[in-house]
Amino acid sequence: MKAIPADRSGSAVAIPCSTNMDGGFMMVNEVAFGLGSNRSCIRELFEYGRMRAAVVGDENVYDYSLGNPSIPAPAAVDQAIRDILADTSSLAVHGYTSAVGDLATRQAIADDLNDRYDAGVRAQDLFIGCGAAPELVAVFRALAVPGAEVLAVAPYFPEYKPFVEGAGASFKVVPADVPGFQIRMDELEKALTKDTVAIILNSPNNPAGTVYTRQTLQELAALLEKKAADYGHPIYIVADEPYRELAYDGVEVPFIPTIYGDTVVCYSYSKSLSLPGERIGYVYVPEKCSDHDALYAAIAGAARAGGHVCAPSLWQKVIARCASLRPDLEAYDRNRKTLYEGLVALGYEVAKPDGAFYLFVKAPGGDANAFSEKAKEKDLLVVPGDGFGCPGYFRVCYCVSYEKIVKSLPVFAALV
Ligand code: PLP
After folding, report:
1. Domains and CATH numbers, the chain
2. Which of 230, 351, 356, 399 is the most buried (most CB within 10 A)?
């Protein structure tokens, strides 16, 4: 075996190989191999659900594992596609766009954000990306100076860890604020160091379904401003916002850049317009962000280093026409209320679900893995909270049919 120097995101690993290269072994990056060959717990459950559905029928499997939107994309999105394709005056429909995105698309998004938040967004502050995941990766790569630490508040989206570590920064977790799932400022203060370059916030939250209040965000802003002044460098909030439009009962989802200037927003239309497979969203770097121009350039450069050429051209044109559309949340809201009220009536302890399409539930007996295994025996698939940095809870993703929600309540009852 040849010795291959370790890179900063993982050492080399020898994998048995059928092509008899290098004595029957092939050298690949260990971290990359691990990520590619082990499915996430969520994907495992989802695949198990598909397998069970083939045996017992889809209607008998209560698969609450995966956050795939269950409401269709708005009709206006389909119409926009038809209109764009019907316009044959230009060949540019499927052509490359500027790497940072079409100006018309960026302007439409800026106009919409300004209408809603009076936030002073300019087209040149926006970078059109391929959904929140690659946008987050580009932002972490842009911020990953040597020794950099990035914090995430538990419970958090499990992919943050590989995104941050893959960018070459250290990933640190701020323990969860149980049971309200706001932010424990005392724990955050303990976690902050002079190496902290950013904290990831996700509100409305996956998996807790909670929304950070204006008061929480103001306290956070005060703490970060103080620490940034102490350390002599900015501490950015990276606001991961695929669920921004998914909030219920009129709850406020504050636009974080209006509370804390050093915020970079990673937005996605995956959930708000039910377009997860189309890969479209944006990064917003507010004009007042510290080192705005350098940061924007570094994000564009990090995306380039990751192979970004431009976001899908057709979808950029759709967003130029549909940036102000909002989802019809009626179906999610009905599921949310029925499941929340049903579980609480059964004695489950559930975080108050103000947003997104998840419930976060305390596992009876305290062991969420054991609960998930027991539930699996009854074809009820829920995700243990360990991967979200919050053991003892499990996640229920309620973007399924209403009939399934109702039919699953007796199964939950049998498991209390
Ligand atoms: N961030 C969170 C919190 C998510 O839940 C998801 C997807 O489920 C993503 C990011 C990735 O979203 P996208 O499809 O925009 O890449």
Report:
1. 1-37 (no CATH), 41-68+328-415 (3.90.1150.10), 75-322 (3.40.640.10)
2. 356
